[in-house]
Amino acid sequence: MFYFGADYYPEQWPEARWTEDGRLMAEAGFNIVRLAEFAWATMEPEAGRFDFAWLDRAIALLAERGMKVMLGTPTASPPPWLMAGRPELFRVRHDGERVTFGNRREYCPNHPDYHAATRRIVAAMAARYADHPAVIAWQIDNEFGDRCYCPTCIAAFQAWLRQRYDSLDALNHAWGTIFWSHTYSDWDQIPAPAATGGSPNPGLALDYARFMSNSYVAYQRLQLEILHARCPRQPVTHNLMGFNYDQINYFDLVRELDLVSLNYYPRNQWDLSTVVDPAHSALALDTMRGLKRQNFWVTEQQAGQGGWEMLSAAPRPGELRLWAYQSIAHGADAVIFFRWRTARAGTEQYWFGLLDHDARPSRRYAEAKRMGAEIAALGATIAGSSAQPSVALMLSYDSRFAFQIQPHHPQFSYTGHFQELYRAFHRRNLATDVVAPAADLTSYRIVVAPALHVVTPAIAENLVRFVAAGGVLILTQRAGVKDETNLVTDRRPPGLLAELCGVEVEECDALPAEVSNTVEFIAPELAGTPDAEVGVLYEVLHPTTAAVAATYRRDYYAGRPAVTINRYGEGHAIYVGALGRGDLYGPLVEWAVRLTGLPRPPVAAAGVEIVERRQGARRLIFVLNHTEQAQSVGLPGRFTDLLTGAAIAGEAITLAPREVAVLVESAPQA
Q1: Mean pLDDT value across the chain
Q2: Could you give the CA distance from residue 503 to residue 542 in angstroms, rounded to a whole number?
Q3: Catalytic: which of 44, 106, 143, 612?
Q4: Is 300 a catalytic residue?
């Protein structure tokens, strides 16, 4: 079943309006509506007194029109009666200031009284709707995040450390607390990193980041256990925020969930550009698919301008439909627009829905309605299909957290570096998963590990197995520098991966962004490749068994290796010691593809995506024109366009600006 719908807040509107909303939703082809995620004060107007009658009526109205319901637990936005006079329930920011009431997600995720209130509302909702035929799924809270540094969390952190290290001797050794005479003699002496007044011990800071991530996992589990026990037939999810959100280890967060969900906003109040980078959006989608290596839901698909205090550029005609089909192409099995009607009150007055404040159907509603008719026709064909990538990018949250603590350079960003490497594959329409360092890599032919700073023996063994079995690994600068406690190893980088890569890093250099260098490709397989510009971070490499693939052109390391390749077992490890962009990574991606013998998908003009989902042996090809010009794309094979019914047999197809084609492969002729 493919689900298509909107997020609806009936409690925010006169009940006399609900019938008209239901009628318009049904006319748009919606078959699912998400409800109740911010309705705590309406469902529990005072402690222990519940009112679900209004929600019963809203669900019944939608069900009468053929729509199912996803319910959200409302714990992201507590009611005033719970928080008033209870400052200890509020989160403390990194700067030491305690937040106050008036936004959302103000709560401390570790406070036992907030946990108790959470159990009460979630249990009441579960008891009410466990057997309701229209309720088919649950969402826990909303967009978990934000670290807390309150006394409750510090005490919980100290208890977490005691369980992790067992003894203070082990902790002191792991963190190297002998430095600056920080050796702890009591667990109560250990602070939160925000309170240190400067750069904290890297081991302390990394463990606190892990602890806070685990705190949200534990708070989610509190709700999950109630829902799984009382609503076993209804899958449970949480709405995540894509690749860029970096405060929680999403691999840990989704492990116990039944499915992954994403809130997907290609453009919002922080971006006034009218041009959306499709690779940036695609990385968010592929990250969600990679978290559990399965399809996902989009619980919030952009429906209009995104803004709180500021307005953003309005979605251009065709973009809402284009973005929704991009979600589907990359693995979405549900697309739910946020929101149905633009709020007249509150913080999100300028975060526009499918309907404006006046509730009249807009061009955005018409665009969603067009897509609803299309989904009704092709949803059954899409359902059950999935992506089957041969490339994986390894997302290490330990490394990501470590770079938050010690960024290395003002112009270095782990997130940005990861995006640049992803873009090199996306530009070539090579399907890519985003996976954890511990993931089973046997189904992949190419693995890229961007700036894999923190490396454990288990991670190293995983990569060694992959390469020895015939895979191609691309590893980039500052890899293998730290162990799992954020302690620098006593080996030359890349540390535990040095033998696999056949190279050691002699030294590293960090220069201003305006000072650049170039690398010359000297490997015979890269002959004729233009020089690539590099900058910010440089490593001078010393090959042990690796061959040199590229060298620096300038500075005191002119002529020294910048990129190497090592044969290991049946595979190859490419080490990239320079930080670059597409002119560096593009040729290396092409080389890796040739080494593996992977088939090359069609490459179209920049801004045109070609994405494949498979249903057994049958291929579904999504062609998405993100540009403002018509584009022609040649596709080998025989297809039927599910949106137009046109037969395509090897000829090029032409797509209008922001247009989409969904092609199903025809059975080969006898």
Answers
A1: 96
A2: 6
A3: 143
A4: yes
Give dist(CA 231, CA 210) in Å, integer. 30
CB atoms closer than 10 angstroms to residue 462: 18
In the residue annotation, 539 being an active-site residue is answered as: no
- Give the Cα separation of 578 and 277 in Å (integer): 25
pLDDT band with cut points at 50, 70 and 90 for residue 268:
confident
CA distance 497 to 568: 12
pLDDT, tens digit (0-9, with 9 covering 90-100), for 33-79: 999 999 999 999 999 999 999 999 999 999 999 999 999 999 999 99
How far apart CA 316 and CA 576 sit, in angstroms, is 39
What average pLDDT score do residues 411-421 get? 97
Spelled out in words, what is the top-level CATH class assigned to the domain 391-596? alpha beta
* Catalytic residue selected from 37, 44, 106, 300: 300
pTM above 0.90, yes or no: yes
Alpha-carbon dihedral sign for residues 154, 155, 156, 160: positive
Q: What does the pLDDT read at residue 669?
A: 44
Residue 51 corresponds to which tokens in the numbers above?
A: 């009112």
Q: What is the 3-state secondary structure (H, E, C) of 112-168?
A: HHHHHHHHHHHHHHHHHHCCCCCEEEEECCCCCCCCCCCHHHHHHHHHHHHHHHCCH
Residue 489 burial (C-beta neighbours within 10 Å; 0-12, 13-18, 19+): middle
Domain ranges (residues) in the chain? 3-78+111-146+213-382, 391-596, 608-665
Question: What per-residue confidence (pLDDT) applies to 198?
Answer: 75
Integer Cα distance of 574 and 553 in angstroms: 20
3-78+111-146+213-382 belongs to which homologous superfamily? Glycosidases (3.20.20.80)
Instruction: Answer whether 73's CB lies under 8 Å from 92's CB.
Output: no
- And the tokens for 199? 């750069």
Q: Does domain 608-665 have CATH number 2.60.40.1180?
A: yes
